[in-house]
Amino acid sequence: MLNDKNNTNYTTSTADTSVSAANVRDCGKDAEMNNKNTTDKKQSSSSADNRKMGGTPKKITILYERLSLEDDKDGDSNSIINQRSLLQDYAEKNGFTPYVHISDDGYSGTNWNRPGWIELTAKIESGEVANLLVKDSSRLGRDHLRVGLFRELLRDKNIRLISVNDGFDSANGEDDFTPFRDIMAEWYARDCSRKMRSSLKTKGESGRPLSSRPPYGYIRLSKDKSSADFNKWIVDEPAAEVVRRIYSLALEGLPLYDICKILHDEQIERPSYYLTKNGYVKYAGALDTENPFAWQEGNIKTILSREEYLGHVVNFRVRKPSFKSKKQEFLPKEDWHIFEMSMSLSWTKTHGSWFSSYGKQNVSVTVWEK
Q: Is residue 119 within 8 Å of 138, Cβ to Cβ?
């Protein structure tokens, strides 16, 4: 089973001038904290040189790079490699050693659960950092309130911030134009989000699937995003057999728990494990399990309720309340766009009903048949 997952108002208090790293990173429970850390550390001296006599650690300079998918469209000037080269050259010419590279490649500036950012703030809070170098202030993020809080954190920790391309060095005092740069960085993210929403609206209203992950039982015709076949779904027969089996068991009147037990006993891999193992979708931690056959009742319930198994395309199930938020909210069914039988599937339909141990009611369903 695959669920379609897809504004938080931030307030600051002037009662306490002490700023914690917790103020500048999103620690929400919904965040996917198991993403692969792309941090690439390069030190200009050996670890033995990083400590003074007596065992006291020498504070380091961090060179922080970030590249989002939107930034990548601007060409090589914003690439991680270009940022690293620029910052490393500046650090070595100006004596900022030892230094460490921390990178977030492919992360939006509105995402505050970036693995590199989390590592950066942890090092700052632990007192390991003397200087922080970035290509420009937008690399820190694209939310002027959060970036402002982060600057306060650096001031509290007596950390020197240098934004190379902006010509900013906190050692020279405050720059009156800095807040405007932060606002413009946020405006850029807002503008990109507005354009993306317009593009998705047009695409969704045309009947092309908007879901980033086809439901269990389907796969993309092409994995190439530039291909016209990327938005076309085809039946994945091994998984389709499992879906047919689930519907057949439901039509026999079996409750969800019993269906889960049967699938487990038949050694059928649960959707997240199957899809990750075969490279269709990457679910963090899906393969780190001793029991890949542990189906949940929610898996079965979702499969039995997805209209995509009728051959329909269903768009606009969810939306994001703000470009700053990664959370999604579900829309009422009357706001969905359903394009009936718009996928060419080699199945016929038979109708029946399944008995839900949750709702205790009969629900009309359709079962796939070859």
A: no
DSSP secondary structure string, 179-239? HHHHHHHHHHHHHHHHHHHHHHHHHHHTT----SSPPTTEEES-S-TTSTTTT-EEE-HHH
Contact indicator for 196, 190 with CB cutoff of 8 Å: no
> Degrees (nearest 5) of the Cα angle 72, 102, 54?
170
Residue 97 burial by CB count (10 A; 0-12/13-18/19+): exposed, middle or buried?
Answer: middle
pLDDT in tens, 323-363: 666 677 888 888 887 777 655 443 334 333 332 222 333 33
Quick: pLDDT tens for 215-226. 898 888 888 877
Are the beta carbons of 142 and 150 closer than 8 angstroms?
no
DSSP for 80-112, please give it: HHHHHHHHHHHHHHTT--SEEEEEEET--TT-S
pLDDT along the chain (370 residues), means of 10: 39 40 44 41 42 62 88 60 94 94 91 93 94 93 87 93 92 78 73 73 75 84 79 87 92 93 94 88 76 92 86 79 72 80 46 30 38
Gap between the Cα atoms of 106 and 37, Å rounded: 11
* Strand extents, DSSP E, the chain: 60-67, 99-105, 129-134, 160-163, 168-169, 218-220, 233-235, 313-315, 318-319, 329-330, 337-339, 348-355, 362-369
Domains observed in the chain: 21-189 (3.40.50.1390), 207-369 (no CATH)
Q: What angle do the packed helices 144-156 and 115-125 form, to 10 degrees?
A: 30
Backbone angles phi, psi at 280, to 5 degrees: -80, -40
Contacts of 84 (CB under 8 A, 6+ apart): 40, 63, 65, 101, 103
Q: In 10 A of CB 18, how many CB atoms?
A: 8
